[in-house]
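Regression report. Comparing outputs from two consecutive submissions.

Submission 1:
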Amino acid sequence: MVLWGPVLGGLLVVVVGCLCLPALLRHRRPQEPPLDKGFVPWLGHAMAFRKNMFEFLKGMRAKHGDVFTVQLGGQYFTFLMDPLSFGPILKDTQKTLDFIKYAQELVLKVFGYQAMDGDHHMIHSASTKHLMGQGLEDLNTTMLDSLSLVMLGPKGPSPDASSWHEDGLFCFCYSVLFKAGFLGLFGYTKDRAQDLQEAEALFAKFRRFDLLFPRFVYSLLGPREWVEVSQLQHLFHQRLSVEQNLEKDGISSWLGCMLQSLREQGTDSSMQDKFNFMMLWASQGNTGPTCFWALLFLLKHQDAMKAVKEEATRVLGEARLEDKKSFAFTLSALKCTPVLDSVMEETLRLGATPTLLRVVQKDFVLKMASGQEYQIRRGDKVALFPYLSVHMDPDIHPEPKTFKYNRFLNPDGTRKVDFYKSGKKIHHYNMPWGSGVSICPGRFFALSEMKIFILLMVMYYDFELVDPHMPVPPIDPRRWGFGTSQPSHEVRFRYRLKPMQ
């Protein structure tokens, strides 16, 4: 009689031993960065990192300096904290550091989309064509119409629109931007009221997926949550299917261009559905949270609010509603808002916390600005966390935790681009969109979309905090490294459409 318990137990020991052996045997070689494997075999510092990435990396930098390698779940990540040394990582002309394969693995896990090697170029090419120049102007017009529909309703303002309404500021911003973005990108049916209902229902599902997202990426979900995530993925694949989109008008030229490229490459319709889910996330996962921080900072800093309102009046004139159905807005004015541009750049400095990752394809020499060189092993990952190393550096940005609406303005009102570290001019002084090969291809559209929303709010609405003395909430530590941060708790506010003369 075979005793399967001891046999299986022995096999488990062998498997675990094989997994842990390379980590247990790894030691720092000459010229390699400081190595910190942690005390737990294989896991290393994974739990501390996932609990609060910002505090973990701050502690590691204090312990090891500007370059260090840590073990996280059987993988080794070398973090570079000196922004003066970012250039060789971000430019990498030798193709030693790869971003695309890592991104392909991530989108397959999160969205179910099996990316092809040419997708990265295809997305950037479509974004350059349709999210810049005339293409961007056309999409801005569509977004203004969508925001009018979402904020005013299909029949224009309701009779109580000028009465005070109370809501959570984060939920309000996220909901409005998501619904307008979804409708602007994926089109409409002939029934606008039904379109709004569909967008509202989809946002509720999107928000639930969003809440599970960080632990999903880290594979920390419970059994029921794994089932829920799978169901949500399937729901989005259905709701965003190519078949359903055929029934709609006004699908954006940007999305249409990319789907056409996929069809020409022979991508089947089910994979196109998953691509749509990925693009919905990419386009709408950060704009709402960013606008939350922007409006909150304006509400907490009345000098900034006053400056933005004065600029809006100067470039757009007095607010008025045409036929009580849509917002009047001269979109060309978006190019003439240096104060708002600085507000948005400062908001992103304080709120955007992306991690930039590169996979080392072959042994690599990391050359620091100081002249120091470090050997990085093939198979490891090189990581940048600009929020800590750039955005919160007091040498680059004095009083880095303080919101200063004019931080990115020169005294003459032009955009400020000259920032310094250790007396040297620094190129990477604000990195909310990433940089290099991984820079966000839709950044110009995202910024325009957010600026339109902020301007509509300050021009057409009265709004205030329920508790004006409430401090700005801290960042939810679970969101470090995932695009724009989110608050640890909601902020209540009141708003109303300004009474029209």
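Submission 2:
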Amino acid sequence: MTSMLMNSVRNCPVNSTWAVQFATRSLSTSSQMHATAKSKKTLAKPGVKNIVLVEGVRTPFLLSGTSYADLMPHDLARGALQGLLTKTGIPKDYVDYIVYGTVIQEVKTSNVAREAALGAGFSDKIPSHTVTQACISSNQAMTTGVGLIAAGQCDSVVAGGVEFMSDVPIRHSRKMRKTMLSLNKAKTLGQRLALIGSIRMAHLNPELPAVAEFSTAETMGHSADRLAAAFGVTRLEQDEFALRSHTLAKKAQDAGLLSDVISFKVPGKDIVSKDNGIRPSSMEQLSKLKAAFIKPHGTVTAANSSFLTDGASAVLIMSEEKALAMGFKPKAYLRDFVYVSQDPKDQLLLGPTYASPKALERSGLTMDDIDVFEFHEAFAGQIMANLKAMDSDWFAQTYMGRKSKVGAPPMEKFNLWGGSLSLGHPFGATGCRLVTTVAHRLQKEGGQYGLVAACAAGGLGHAMVIEAYPQ
């Protein structure tokens, strides 16, 4: 399949100067965006409950190993939940359910949703559970909440996600674990001494967690490099996109547009109030970095990849009826969504390509109807491979069973406040950031429809249509 992609998609009609136009156009048009009134049909459906996003917050997303380094995941999740309570003013016992997403679990707080909720002061009568679905874990947390409300089980749900890469669980080797468990069960001194004597130096080698596919043993960065090569995405294009992300994120941060970020007091340290991974550079500096995964000729580098990040997010989701009865002014409607999956070897990161047209079709929309696009930026190469796949009739016909392409998002509407490459990517928390950003951009830009899309490990993907709430 990879060779077919390389031969066929590379031959898709793509302007040879596309990369330069891509970066220049997106940077220039983003500064010229103005809020414009829209008058499109609503996606409300007869007999279907309207579900709204009331508010969304997140802790600052920080490079792992920085200010959050001595904390635990539930500390950040608790901070996000407390920030949501403060921002909304909702009484702590008015929430019906809490669900959180995470990927690399801390064994002491495996149900981090429950521990964070209790720590944040929510009533101990509120049920809570934790989900995991790789990089779309908080997407799953949100749609689980949507399902609970749609089914009439709940009126208000808090969903969120957290990831803490500063301290990940490192295990003993399996042989060492078996020996230690046997020692715990040994009844005599002789049995204990025999077990201790069986320990070899090799038993002491730790098992480190890796961002790699269990089914293929390939790291995600390696997959991104192969995907970029298959679609003919150049190193120049990737670096330009990374620079775009950081430049737009810095601009949004300086303009106060990242209003979902709440201040977080690190015990014994200063208050953290903004993301610290936003670092606009230059093409000259980016070009000096060496390949990070496929060496020496790969195109994926540390600069055009999302970085290891600590952070947490939380959103308040309610039925529209309940939200209005409590005096809230919702930000957006959460409309149709889909989850997809495909081959985790050659199509690991193509979730947006497969999910976007399905979500649009469920809503009766086309790409032209969408005013705001927010796609997860795992790697610049991954994003641009998706854009090329979405704009390819050949790919749609060959791999998706579609008559024609769905079309690529116009860059003047795409990730205008930065993305995961610059803001950071705490695996379990990114989905809530994407949805909240769409809601805020729709308000700011006067649009009506937004589309969130993301890829995830395992060949998974997600897309959701969001509709602005009438102002």
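Expected: both submissions complete independently.
Actual: both completed, but the second showed a warning that disappeared on reload.
Relevant detail on submission 2: The first strand starts at residue 51 and ends at 58.
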